[in-house]
Specification:
The complex is a heterodimer of chains A (about 200) and B (about 400). Chain A has about 200 residues and is of the alpha+beta class. Chain A has a single domain, classed as 2-Layer Sandwich (Alpha-D-Glucose-1,6-Bisphosphate, Chain A, domain 4). Chain A has helices at about 20-30, 50-55, 145-160, 160-175, 185-195, and strands at about 35-45, 70-75, 80-85, 90-100, 105-110, 120-125, 135-140. Chain A has a seven-stranded antiparallel sheet, sandwiched between helices. Chain A starts with about 20 loop residues before the first helix and ends with a helix. By secondary structure, chain B is of the alpha/beta class. Chain B has two domains: about 1-170 and about 335-395, Medium-chain alcohol dehydrogenases, catalytic domain (Quinone Oxidoreductase, Chain A, domain 1), CATH 3.90.180.10; about 170-330, NAD(P)-binding Rossmann-like Domain (Rossmann fold). Chain B is built from 14 helices and 18 strands. Chain B has helices spanning about 40-45, 95, 115-120, 160-165, 170-180, 195-210, 220-230, 240-250, 270-280, 290-300, 320-325, 335-350, 370-375, 390-395, and strands spanning about 1-10, 10-15, 30-35, 55, 60-70, 80-85, 85, 125, 145, 155, 190-195, 215-220, 235, 255-260, 305, 330, 360-365, 385-390. In chain B, the strands form four sheets. In chain B, strands 3, 5, 6, 9, 10, 17 and 18 form a seven-stranded mixed sheet that branches. A six-stranded parallel sheet of chain B has the order 13-12-11-14-15-16, with helices on both faces. In chain B, a hairpin with a 2-residue loop joins strand 1 (about 1-10) and strand 2. Chain B starts with a strand and ends with a helix. The chains are: A alpha+beta (about 200), B alpha/beta (about 400). The interface of A and B includes residues 162, 179 and 189 of A. Chain A: It comes from Sphingomonas metalli. Chain A: It holds the Pfam family Polyketide_cyc.
Chain lengths: ~200, ~400
């Protein structure tokens, strides 16, 4: 079982829980968890698990399908620096450290001291046979306060679940079709529209 | 380039917009030679479909010449192609099952949210059919950017007229799939509501699939005349009580299969229709489902209901009790065009299916706004309008 579940209630994943404590429950199941606002999503990608995992593990490539992520600098084997767009043209940043990794199964992370938006989470990969690979994301974050909070809240609290879903959908499109669907009429428009 | 753009209810105009360019590697650019106005374009014209924006280029039935290709397109410049109205990737689980119109990869991720809320899942990407289906510029234009051009467009052999093959883009496969979904058995009687293009192709298809009798229902005499030409018996619902007629014509049993080719803008002065119209205009309901109600009530017990008709939202008074008690099966959905195109191209080449009979008007693209008005107001004589951008070029 790679999705976080609430063993006291039923077999459903925690991200579908109606209970207020779901975030805290999730935090209890992740190593070095930070944050208690919980979002998550799953997508099935018609490619072998080794390929899906390898693409995702190369963090520098993630901005190719993550709309809000401007840049990820890989610092060493377990640490990376994230620069994420905020509304109004600014950015928020943090360092993330891998806390758990099982190749072709899961990657868990947590943000390090000083993060603009403390967060943690786990991406799991499950071989789905002829259907490819199921990718599940569980993300915990601290809804921010203060000045940065007001800027960031717009981004994260608007519809964080929708953002996660869109990113995973683009990941699927990229791996399955080699491109990201767009109605743009020319490359310049594609650039302006963003992902 | 010139293109037909939507600006509001009953307001479409020829705008000058930027020519499309290659954006993704699998794209091709098509120079449109023929493009039709579809009955479902009237749903846009009548502002029944949400998420249209002023300036959106319409049109999803089109064909033309390949003028530019991306690095991964398999098409060649100069080839003539018909383009399916559904944008499908050919690589995903659904495409693998030939359920092309269920492909999630043609729809930009940002356009998936609305349908996700409304239908629980994303829709297929479509050309020229609102932002819910991707916001792609459509084919009622001089040029179109066609994504996944290595999977969708079918190459047309030299010497075969546009008018013969244009309808491979939508209405012919849609009529064929409608008949296939009716799961016709030898000896069956099939009733078809609506003698628009889809209904008329469903009539032809049903006979090819072994139906013994096809009964076509409409209120436009000319359209019923066309159905008769293909061997259908007809019911004019303005003159005749449809249910009573169908029961009488089928010895009290009801048709073995029924096909609703009418959809969300059913015409006719029936009580439920009038109520539905009031509800639709006050946003209490979106669709006017008279034809599907009647089809379900008329279908024989254990029979099959096929619904190619477009419905957009919620319906009231769906006869669920009749549907259950009679043990009916319903099959519906957007058309898996790519699945049917090769077989239907062969059927056209072998003269098994007549397509050109449908075209009542050919006009230059520049006259498209007039075409929409005519198509809406004169449905008896205007069965299909084909726009020819080349007629403008020739006149220029």
């Amino acid at each position: 079982m790679t999705d976080l579940a609430n063993p006291q209630a039923d077999d459903a994943p925690l991200i579908a829980s109606k209970r207020k404590e779901a975030g805290a429950d999730a935090a209890g199941q992740l190593p070095e968890a930070q944050g208690d606002a919980l979002v998550g999503n799953a997508v099935t990608i018609n490619r072998p698990v080794a390929e899906v995992y390898a693409y995702f593990r190369d963090f520098a490539k993630l901005p190719s399908f993550m709309e809000n992520v401007e840049r990820i600098d890989v610092l060493d084997d377990s640490r990376s620096h994230w620069v994420v767009k905020a509304p109004g043209g600014g950015t928020v940043e943090w360092d993330a450290r891998i806390t758990e990794e099982e190749p072709e199964r899961l990657i868990a992370w947590t943000s390090e001291e000083g993060a603009d938006v403390p967060n943690s989470g786990r991406i799991s990969f499950r071989d789905a046979g002829a259907r490819g690979t199921v990718v599940s994301a569980v993300i915990l974050y601290d809804p921010p306060g203060g000045f940065i909070g007001r800027v960031v809240a717009k981004m994260f609290q608007r519809e964080p679940a929708i953002q996660a879903r869109r990113d995973l959908r683009r990941f699927k499109q990229l791996l399955e079709t080699g491109e990201i669907a767009t109605p743009a009429m020319n490359p310049k428009q594609f650039e302006e529209m963003g992902l | 380039m010139k293109a037909l753009a939507w600006h509001g209810k009953h307001d479409v105009r020829i705008d000058t917009v930027d020519d499309p360019e290659i954006v993704n590697p699998r794209d091709a650019i098509i120079k449109v030679t023929s493009t039709a106005i579809c009955g479902s374009d009237l749903h846009l014209y009548d502002a029944y479909i949400p998420t249209l924006k002023a300036g959106d280029v319409l049109g999803h039935e089109f064909m033309g010449e390949v003028v530019e290709v991306g690095a991964k397109s398999t098409l060649k410049k100069g080839q003539r192609v018909v383009v399916p109205f559904t944008i499908a990737c050919g690589e995903c689980f659904h495409c693998g099952k030939h359920q092309y119109s269920a492909c999630p990869n043609g729809l930009p991720a940002d356009n998936q949210d609305i349908a996700r809320e409304l239908y629980g899942t994303e829709m297929s990407g479509l050309f020229g059919y609102s932002h819910m289906t991707g916001g792609y510029a459509g084919g009622q234009a001089e040029y179109v950017r066609v994504p996944f051009s290595d999977v969708g467009p079918i190459v047309i052999p030299d010497g075969v007229d546009d008018d013969k093959v244009l309808f491979l883009s939508d209405i012919l496969p849609t009529g064929w799939q409608a008949a296939e979904y009716a799961q016709i058995e030898p000896g069956d009687t099939v009733a078809v509501w609506g003698c628009g293009p889809v209904g008329l192709f469903a009539v032809q298809s049903a006979f090819l699939m072994g139906a013994e009798r096809v009964i076509a229902i409409d209120h436009f005499p000319h359209r019923l005349e066309l159905a008769k030409r293909f061997g259908a018996e007809t019911i004019n619902f303005e003159e005749t009580a449809t249910y009573e007629a169908l029961m009488e014509m089928t010895g009290g049993i009801g048709p073995d299969a029924v096909i609703d080719a009418v959809g969300l803008e059913a015409h006719g002065l029936f009580v439920d229709n009038v109520i539905d119209q009031i509800k639709a205009s006050t946003f209490l309901g979106t669709d006017r489902p008279h034809s599907i109600r009647q089809a379900i009530i008329a279908c024989r017990k254990g029979g099959r209901v096929s619904m190619p008709a477009v419905y957009g939202g919620f319906v009231d008074k769906f006869p669920l009790g009749a549907f259950m008690e009679k043990g009916l099966t319903l099959k519906t959905g957007q058309t898996h065009v790519q699945h049917y195109m090769p077989g239907l191209l062969n059927a056209i080449m072998e003269d098994k299916i007549d397509t050109e009979f449908l075209i009542s008007h050919r006009m230059p693209l520049s006259e498209a706004p007039e075409g929409y008005r005519m198509f809406k107001d004169k449905q008896n004589e205007v069965t299909k309008i084909v726009l020819k951008p080349g007629m403008d070029r020739a006149a220029a």
